[in-house]
Design a protein that fits this description.
This protein is an all-alpha fold. The two termini are 37 Å apart. The chain contains 7 helices and no strands. Helix 1 (2-28) runs antiparallel to helix 4 (83-99), helix 3 packs antiparallel against helix 4 (83-99) and helix 4 (83-99) runs antiparallel to helix 5 (102-123). The chain is rod-shaped. Residues 242-249 have low confidence and may be disordered.
Length: 249
């Protein structure tokens, strides 16, 4: 996540660098430049640099561009002659829609519409719908749609993570249950066979001197009982030993 965020920040810096350089070229080559070159460059540079905060503080570029565009339209070079400033405003509007909560996003949109409306009234009052809709409302709606899509994808990812966690927890419980079952069966096997062997060993001890042949038979029986117990243990632990799960403690 942090690496992805660093990549986006790098792209934002590149975007700002491209826009600022293009704005300088635009100001220096504008056909109808008004006001001093230095002041034009200063205002357009502040507008461009404000986009560096378009993810962390999206309202900053909205305010800077919202003030800068009417300022250039009123006393400096009009935005139609510095088309990069219009691109900056569209980017700020998109950022407001994409990165602000609903209430602040609506305030950002209102400021964008007010700024563009002011520019239209100063420059060309007869054509107000197109610039406001295309450079203000449309980018904001695109940013809002992107935000909703991102939030939906994040919600689905969180649900998938919870489902995976639940599945792992269920597997863990199944493993614990299976180990408990094996432990009970192991106890039963060992208890039964050891009890038989103890009884047989006690009987063999009592008859070993008087009837050695019969005692030897009992010893053979004890051996067979022990082998059967080992065979049952192998059968019981065979799936565990050959499985992919972790060893029983």
């Amino acid at each position: 996540m942090s690496r992805l965020l660093r990549d986006w920040r790098l792209l934002d810096r590149l975007l700002v660098a491209v826009l600022v350089v293009a704005a300088w070229v635009n100001v220096l080559t504008a056909s109808d430049r008004q006001g001093s070159v230095a002041l034009n460059l200063l205002v357009i540079t502040v507008m461009g640099l404000s986009l560096l905060w378009r993810r962390d503080r999206p309202f900053v570029p909205v305010v800077c561009c919202g003030i800068g565009m009417p300022l250039t339209a009123a006393v400096l070079t009009a935005p139609p002659y510095i088309f990069v400033s219009i691109a900056m405003m569209a980017t700020a509007s998109y950022s407001a829609g994409a990165h602000l909560e609903r209430r602040l996003a609506l305030r950002g949109l209102a400021l964008v519409v007010l700024s563009l409306g002011t520019v239209v009234l100063i420059f060309d009052p007869s054509d107000w719908f197109f610039p406001i809709a295309i450079f203000g409302i449309a980018p904001w709606l695109a940013g809002r749609a992107m935000r909703n899509q991102t939030m939906l994808a994040r919600e689905l990812a969180e649900k998938a993570e919870l489902a995976e966690h639940a599945r792992q927890e269920e597997e863990r419980r199944a493993i614990v249950s299976e180990r408990s079952r094996i432990a009970r069966e192991l106890h039963d096997v060992l208890a039964h066979n050891l009890s038989v062997m103890v009884v047989q060993a006690g009987g063999a001890r009592r008859i070993v001197e008087k009837r050695p042949d019969q005692a030897a038979g009992v010893a053979d029986l004890i051996e067979r009982t022990g082998r059967e117990a080992l065979a049952e243990l192998r059968h019981l632990f065979g799936p565990v030993r050959h499985g992919d799960g972790e060893d029983l403690q």
